[in-house]
Amino acid sequence: MLIDDCSTDARIFPYLRSVANTHPNVTLIVQKENLGFVRTANVGLSLNADHDVVLLNSDVEVTEGWLRRLTLTAYEKPDCASAIPLSNEASIYSLFWEHIGMIKQKIGPKNFARIIAKHSLKLRPEIPTSVGFCMFLKRDVLKTIGVFDTSYAGHVQKGQTTDPRNEAMLSARFPEYQPLIEAYLQQDRSRLAIRNQYCRVLIKALTVGRKRVAHLLHLNPFSNIGGTQRNVQDLMTQSGDDYCSLAIFPELDQERLTVLEYADGLQCCSHFPLAPESGERGLREVFGEILKKYSVDLLHVHHCMHTSFGLIEVAKKLHIPVVFSVHDYYALSPNFNLLQRDGTYHGIPKDEEYYDEFLSLSYGVWRRPIRQALSQTDGIVAPSRSALALFDQVYGDIGGPRFVIEHGTDPLWIRKPEYQKGSTGPICFLGSTQRNVKGKQLAEQVALELARRGQEVVFLGTEEHHWPVLQGQPGIHFRGLYRPDQLSEKLQQIHPRLVCLLSNWPETFGYTLSEAWAAGIPAYVTDVGALGERMRREQCGRLAPTEDPVHMAEDICAFLVSEDYQKALHRIQLLRLPTCRTMWQSYQRLYDSLLEKTFSHLAPTVPQ
What we know:
Blueprint: E1 2-4, H1 12-22, E2 28-30, H2 36-46, E3 53-56, H3 66-74, E4 82-83, H4 100-106, H5 109-118, E5 134-137, H6 139-145, H7 164-173, H8 177-187, H9 190-206, E6 211-216, H10 227-237, E7 243-251, E8 256-263, E9 266-273, H11 279-293, E10 298-301, H12 311-317, E11 322-325, E12 354-356, E13 361-362, H13 363-374, E14 379-382, H14 385-395, E15 402-404, H15 417-421, E16 427-430, H16 440-452, E17 457-460, E18 476-478, H17 487-494, E19 498-501, H18 511-518, E20 523-525, H19 529-538, E21 541-543, H20 549-560, H21 563-574, H22 580-595
Parallel strand pairs: 1-2, 6-7, 6-10, 10-11, 11-14, 14-15, 16-17, 16-19, 17-18, 19-20, 20-21
Antiparallel strand pairs: 3-5, 4-5, 7-8, 8-9, 12-13
Helix pairs in contact: 16-20
C-alpha cells in the first residue's frame, strides 16, 4: 500500500501511480490534505483488517527476504506485539551508521544482506520502544490496542525531525518511558554482541587476499592514547587495501590476550584466556595459536610489557618475519624511561648494576633473554636517530637492519594571523605535564618565574588539582584535558605564541612537539632525546641552554622578542612534517621487503 500524503513534490504522484499501475498487488491512496505521519499511518493501519502491517518509510532500502525474516521474528514469541530490524539509521537501534558508505561500496547491499542473514546470532532482545522506519505490527495487537494516539501528531517544523511538544507530553503521561530507555541502553549487551559478530564477518570478507600484520603491544591501541598506542592506531587505520591489521595485547584483570581486528574502520575483539599457573609457557602456546588462527604474515612488536620478548621466538619458529620498534627503553631497563625514583635521568644502567637489590637482580640478568629474542628480529625501527643510538649502545651488535621512520602527524588547521604579526598570546605547557617524566617539577618552577615576569601561562592537557603549588597563582590558567581530535579547537581558542616541552628523559619522538609545529607554534624544549634532536634539525623554536628555572624563564622572555623567534615562525610555515599516510608508506615498503625476503631496494638508516 502506497499513501501520497498530499505531497508538495510534483514528482511523487506520477511515480506512485506508475508503480501501482505496473504491480497489481499495490494499492495507491491519495489524500486530499496533508495529515502528517501519525494520522496518515493510521489510515494505512485501518485498512486490510485481516492482515499484519509493516510501516515502511519511503527512504528505506530493503533487500531480498527482508519481509519473511521480519515476520518470522515477530512470531517467535506469541506475546510479541511489534518487531523492528536493526539498521544503519534506526535511532537507538543503529549499527554501522558511520560505515554504511564503505559497506555499500566494497560489499554491496545484496552481499551485505546475505552476510546478515547467514551469520545472524538470532538474538531477539526485548526493547522498550519501537521505531517507525520499518515497524512490524501484528493485527491482533491493533485490534486490541488500536492505532496510534493522534494527540502526538503535531506538525513538524522545518529543520526538525519530531514535534518538540511530543517529548514533554510523553514525559507527563508516561514518566516511566525515559527511564526505561536509559535502562535499556545501559543494560543491553545484545547490540554489542551483534555488532562484534558482523564486524568479524565483514572484516573477513573485506580482507580476502590482503597481507596480515599483527601488532603486539601492552595496551589496547584504541583506548587512552599514549605514544605507542597512537603509533599502532595510525598504522592500523592507514593500512589501505593491501594490508589488514590486528592488535594483540594483554588484559591483566581478565587474565587473557585480546585480539583486535581492524579493516576499513571496522573493528572487533576476540579473547584468549591465559592460565596463570602455566606462566611463560602458557603465554607462548596461546600466542602461537593466535598467530596460526589469524594466518599472520608479519609480526610487528611494539611493546612487551606484561607479555614477553620471548613471543618474538614464537613467531620465528612459525617462519614469520618480525619487526621491532623502539618506542621507549623497556628493552634496556624495567624503568622504561631510564629515570630514577626521584625523577632524575639515570642514563643506561650497566649490566652489573642492580635494578632490584633485594632480589639481587641485575640489568644483565634482565637483558639476557631480551638479547636472545632481539637477535632473531628481521628489522629494528626507531622514530628518531637519538632513540636508536641509545638502543644500540646495548644491542647494536644483534638483530636485523636499522631504520628510522618518524611518526606521522596530520596538519592542525588553525588560523594563525596572530603568529604572523607577533602574537601577544600566552605561553602554553602542552600535554600530560603533570607526570614526572614530562618534567613536572621544572615546568612548575618555570611557570612561576614566567608569571612573575608578567607572562600569561596556560596549561593544556592537564588538570589544576595536579598542581597545588600553582593553584590560584595570578597569570597561570588551566584549560583541562583534550582528545587528539579536540586539539585544533583548543589551540584556536588559546592562541599560544610558544609551547614549552620540558621533558627530563630522552623521549623517542615527541608527538606534542609535532602537534605544536603542525599548528604553526614555535616550541621551547629541553635538550634531551628526540626533542633536542628534532629542534636542532628544524630550528622551529629554541633549545633550553640551561635547566635552571630562573635562567630558563629569562631566556624564554628574551627569545619571544628576538629575531630568532621571527625566524622560527618563518621556518614553521615551510616545515613539512611526515603525515600519517607518508609514515605508513615507509612502513609498507619495509613490510613488503620483509615479506619478499629481500632488503635490496631499501637503504638502511643508521644514526649519525
